[in-house]
Amino acid sequence: MIQVMGMPEVVAPEEVLDVQNVTQLIMREREKRLNLTKEIIFQKQKNFQLENFIEELVDSLQLPQEKKVVEEIVDDTVKVGAYSANTRMMKIKKYKLKLKKYRSRVTISREFKGRSLASKMKPRHNGKFAKKTQTI
Questions:
Q1: Overall number of domains in the chain
Q2: How far apart are CA 94 and CA 98, in angstroms?
Q3: Which residues contact 76 (CB under 8 A, 6 or more apart)?
Q4: pTM, 2 dp
Q5: Distances (CA, A) of 98 to 1, 2, 95, 127
Q6: Do 98 and 78 belong to one domain?
Q7: Which domain holds residue 57?
Q8: pLDDT above 60 (res 113)
Q9: Which of 38, 78, 101, 130 is within CB 3.0–4.6 Å of 134 for a Cys-Cys bond?
């Protein structure tokens, strides 16, 4: 492009061809990208199908002893409160994990300087806080 100060841009004929070439290149790249995304989606679907197939094979090849143990756990009809024993156990495990996660995330500060000073200054009667009129 040729540009002179204060004058409108003058476009040479060669530059018009360059713009056409660039747009064609852009369109080709867009097509390539579209084809690649289609291929990726196809591969993801294949992987999902293979994973499901493998899970089905593992379930079908499970030893009979293992199946019995699973059935015993599922057939457990002993009620502890409102839930069966297994359901209760799972809920307790989930609750404990939740508590552990919360405790690791929240820090509890044991420094209450203002409060401890105020409590030391308050009058007490038999180790309990008392009003000033009660201490007499």
A1: 2
A2: 6
A3: 84, 85, 86
A4: 0.34
A5: 66, 68, 5, 38
A6: yes
A7: 9-61
A8: yes
A9: 130
